[in-house]
Amino acid sequence: MREVLILTENELRQAVTLDIESVSLIGKAFEQLSAGTVSMPPILRMDMEDKNGEVDVKTAYVPGLDGFAIKVSPGFFDNPKKGLSTTSGLMIVHDADTGFVRAILLDNGYLTDVRTAAAGAVAAQALARENATRAGVIGTGVQARLQMQALCMVRSIETILVWGRDAEKAAACADDIERATGTEVRVADSVADVVTGSNIVVTTTPSRSPLITADMLHPGLHITAMGSDAEHKNEIAPEVIAEVDVFACDRHQQSAHLGELHHAIGAGTVPEDMPVAELGAILSGTIPGRTDADQITLCDLTGTGVQDTAIATHTLAVCLANGFGTKIAN
Amino acid sequence: MREVLILTENELRQAVTLDIESVSLIGKAFEQLSAGTVSMPPILRMDMEDKNGEVDVKTAYVPGLDGFAIKVSPGFFDNPKKGLSTTSGLMIVHDADTGFVRAILLDNGYLTDVRTAAAGAVAAQALARENATRAGVIGTGVQARLQMQALCMVRSIETILVWGRDAEKAAACADDIERATGTEVRVADSVADVVTGSNIVVTTTPSRSPLITADMLHPGLHITAMGSDAEHKNEIAPEVIAEVDVFACDRHQQSAHLGELHHAIGAGTVPEDMPVAELGAILSGTIPGRTDADQITLCDLTGTGVQDTAIATHTLAVCLANGFGTKIAN
After folding, report:
1. Among A161, B51, B174, B250, who pairs with B185 as Cys (CB 3.0-4.6 Å)?
2. Are residues A295 and A315 located together in one domain of the fold?
3. What is one cellular component GO term in this UniProt entry (chains A, B) (predicted)?
């Protein structure tokens, strides 16, 4: 008789938080991904149009880890009207030697929030100016908050600008970020105000048309675009991709199919074979990231299964060490 | 606070068995699939070569059902050397209105076994001669046993021939089938003996080279090929696909990429646009199946997410009605 460990969101929140350890874990995962040893298939995605819903499944196998994770992320966009969260889901950790199910992490999307924010910090570490002090965020959701928290762990941020379509939500988001980071936070009047006033900008929206345009760029800027994870989403104008000095991403193939690179190739502003720096390759020193304080850099994050395997196996180890969870004999 | 219901293999085995109700359920699922209302993305597949392992994820959304399932099927082929089963895994049932996780079905592959065998019975119902009495099975694993049990529910089978590469395993399989079905079962000397001596043959192997060749075909034969579910697997010679009167399958697109059709197209024995009858279309009467007792028919089963959603949502309903499972507050 085998056992499966069931972990609740509450237990998972106790086990792992967005901290410098999570950031380091995700950075290492990207290095493994770019080193070519990881097996990571394309994302499974299913749309349920009559429900305004979708589900994504991601996975990756990292040789050397004792487990691999499968992450299931539903997104149902009418949920907020019912007072429910848009996203939910879970991660499954399998034994890497037998394939057997070891644990179910009922995180309702929490671990995805953590690993996504951690990836933003990794992107800033790899590409943003060391002396960046002014940050900005486009969007007012959970990731707007978490991305700014993560960024403050890796750069000495002094001021943060927030922009969202809904001024009330932007104000609430600014308050939350100020409380969480102890940094001075202001609501900006426009995307252009955020970008021109910041050294580092993170875009966190599900936008279907570009928010950041080429006229907003200025020397030394770093942009992390984390909103687009599907063909129809687009936060960055195709001209921007052509103008930046370094175009980086978590996974080249995904950015070219689901992310910002996809739109730039489609618009013809960049060639299909344009040079792309994967974060992992920059982190491991295989290819350069920012080489000059005045360069403009951009990192497109589409979200990868290797992040899920990294956070899930780490979280399970912490939970086991703490005796968390309900064991189901099976 | 929401609840997630955790169901063990034991509970699932009590809730659902391979019976005529499961067969009917799977037949209905195929009809829905071929009617075009179902959303079913391509299978996610990841190989872990250094572990001789793989994992498949399947899903489908059937409008009208209150849930959709995601099925995770690991296959680790060194497990038997350790005294462990090759396959394992689980199904997750999500609420179709919110995407939230309703239940985890820790079936270790049991529900896949049931829905796969049920699909074999559906294929025989749709395509085999009404008066078929002689059946044969190639392979000696769990599906060899279950396919013959399922077949005996839908046709009046009097004798069964079994062939496997390992004579000892074939004998054990024959004994098990005889006990389960009450039918006379014999071990055959060759694949050719099975095929020439049967009205209905089911192939259940992971073979990488064809087992059934064109010279074995005879009038009135029906073959169900359920072994191939990946590019490199192949049970039926390309010439056979060209010679049969009706080529059917569970899902055209999958057969053309992962199944027997894929090899025939690759070998050039059939054109890419050859007429293919999906099981669901035959069952709903949209296109004819067998129209003459002397026709030779073949059905390629690659396994579909719609079967998983059908069996999982049905099983969950039975479990809820019986008060099965462990509720986890989350």
Report:
1. B174
2. no
3. cytoplasm
Task: Please answer whether residues A69 and A101 qualify as being in contact, where contact means their C-beta atoms are separated by less than 8 angstroms.
Answer: no
Which residues of chain A fall short of a pLDDT of 70? none
β-strands A200-203, A222-225: how paired? parallel
Measure CB to CB from residue A6 to each of B10, B75, B328 and give the nearest one. Answer: B328
Out of B8, B39, B101, closest to residue A88 by CB: B101
> Is the same domain home to A75 and A36?
yes
Are B219 and B267 within one domain? yes
Tell me the per-residue pLDDT of A87-143, one tens digit each, with 9 for 90 and over. 999 999 999 999 999 999 999 999 999 999 999 999 999 999 999 999 999 999 999
The reply to whether A137 and A264 lie within a common domain is yes
ipTM for the assembly: 0.93
List CB contacts of B86: < 8 A, sequence separation 6 or more: B75, B76, B77, B79, B80
For residue range B87-136, what is the model confidence (pLDDT) as tens digits?
A: 999 999 999 999 999 999 999 999 999 999 999 999 999 999 999 999 99
Q: Is residue A93 located within the same domain as residue A186?
A: no
Residues B248, B218 contacting (CB under 8 angstroms): no
What residue numbers bound the domain in which A312 lies? 3-111+306-329
What does the block give as tokens for A195? 């970008």
* Interfacial A residues in 64-93 facing B (CB < 8 Å): 68, 70, 72, 74-76, 79, 82, 84, 87-90, 92
Residues A144 and A270 in one domain: yes
Looking at the complex, report in whole angstroms how far the Cα of residue A89 sits from the nearest Cα belonging to chain B. Answer: 6
Q: How far apart are CA B150 and CA A230, in angstroms?
A: 42
State whether B100 and A74 contact (CB < 8 Å): yes
Counted domains in chain A: 2
| Domain co-membership, A100 together with A126 | no
Out of A46, A60, A97, the one facing B41 most closely (by C-beta) is A46
